[in-house]
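Final report, results section. Input specification for complex C-07:
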Amino acid sequence: MNEKMKKRLSAVLKNGALAIYAVFALFPLFWMILLSFKSDAEMFTTTFIFNPTLSNYEAVLFQSDYFRFFLDSIIVAGGAVLISVLAGVPAAYALARYDFKKKEDIAFQILSFKFAPEILVVLPLFMIYQKIGLYDTYFGLIWVYQLISMPLLIWVVRGYFEDISVEIEHAAQVDGYSWYHIFLRTLLPLIKPGLVSAALLAFIFAWNSFTFPLMLAGTNVEPVTVAALKYLASDTVHYGQMAVAATVSALPAVIFALCIQKHLVRGLSFGAVKG
Amino acid sequence: MAKIELINVTKKFGKITALEDISLHIKDKEFFVLFGPAGAGKTTILNNIAGIQIPDEGVVKIGDEIVNQTDPANRNVAMVFENYALYPHLSVYDNMASPLRSPKFKKDENYIKEKVQEIAAMMSIDHLLERLPSQLSNGQRQRVALGRALVRTPNVFLMDEPLAHLDAKLRNQMRTELKAMQAKFASTSIYVTHDFMEAMSLGDRIAIINKGKIIQVGTGDEIYYMPHDEFVAQLMGEPEINIIDGKLHKDEETYSVTLTQCNKTYELPKEDNVYEKLAAVSGDSIHAAFRPQDIVYSFEPKKGYVKGTVFSYESIGNKAVLMVKVGSSLLRMIAPNGLVVKLDSDVYIDFHISHIMFFEAETTEYICRYNEAGILALVEELTKEA
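Structure output:
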């Protein structure tokens, strides 16, 4: 076998492996979309060939409170990310730039919030929330979601701040800019790729969160993850309707990801610093 | 433009003392060079003047004003950073325009355009204005960084090795240009370098820094001819100065010195200053130093010459450095280019004894040399002319 053949063979094998993985990763999504077009009657009797129907969509989108749940999810997840960004970016800056006692301990403590299993902390939180009136409120959920979104954001953004040489800040100071100006006009554009991708990931994690809203909300505030359970009735399971609920709730993350695709590519902050 | 003063400045980072009791007086419109090995604290001095760091002790003055409590933005200084510190997200034009757009030094866009064009042409980067820093070579980035500092007329230009990453030809060209520019702008400049040639050719005065302390301040010639100690003598000069052990013999009338490794005694010509200084030396151990050009060699035996062997012969362009092994010491001297020299062959050397410099054997501090008065007079005359 000559060199050329070897190269071609390895290319075929590589692409084959990638294709297998793609099928493995995408098949559940495909299956979910397939289910959403099946009527309950055909759910268990057909695989790929069936009479597609929009009745599930009609039932979920127009005959239930789905949009209210959807809106709740957006408020809660969006609010959580907003607060994470407002508080997390300055925190990340401080952790990247300043030297203070126990700095690494604090940084690790923040990260460790993400280690704790939600189920471990949710019971004490439930009792505390009941006492202080945060149970079943938007703010309560936004607050507890910080456990999910803040550590991620702080750690990613901190890395970006550390990549920016401190001399760039000094240069801007010498050029006559105030610190706030430098932070907003020079540093923020440089960390934007990291900030945007971290915020997106945080949004998806918050959006997908199930344990916290299940235990800490449920009546006034009800995100889609919890609401999807409604289609599991005690007598029958409406798989088609569940599939619709899941498909629609996956849309925002997909749309966001497509919109900010170019920011997900890292690399803006490199190049101006001596290498 | 203004004079700069540092008075007893001390700066510590944790337990490390970066600057220890530094006092400097930099005159208005002076081109002042900070020269020293890596890690000596040169950049820290600049940072303290710029206000990026604040001294733990001591006072920094710009003009007659104490600026310890003043922000960098309000000190009206321009700085060139060693790692360029360009804004990666802005084009070359916007980078250079940045100081003129800041709230502090705001100018209208027409003025900015003119000024940036002018400076860019001077730096020969006017064809790069639309590019991002990441699309430039290191030399180009360095020129952009210089250009960003030069668009303003600040109290003082602080330059941290601004030519370090340029290629040799460009460096020579920029060196000349910087000097001309400084004369034209009549600006106070403080320039950090570890390149001896740059320090000598650019500086009106040079401060030698080592381990956070100022060793010596003076004009290039002053430091070259009368270095404060052996460290400075070795730093100033290319190829490096030769320092060898000597024994001093103080007889009634005439003094003489034996160069131990060469096993040869030279009678010292009588000069009051030299004899006085040497008389004050206790003990007979001394270090004798000769610049490479003050040692002569011959491949034929000559009367009074000391025999050695060729250790190496390195061509450095228009001349060559000949290293000769005498006893256990290696001596550098200047030879013409293009000699055919066999390693380990015999060579005979002699010293220009009237160019000898004496250093204390223990403290390595400078004692004396011949014709000090003449050198000082020359230095003064040159300073006056400048």
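Chain B has two domains: 4-234, 239-385. The longest helix of chain B spans residues 168-185. This concludes the modelling results for the funded period.
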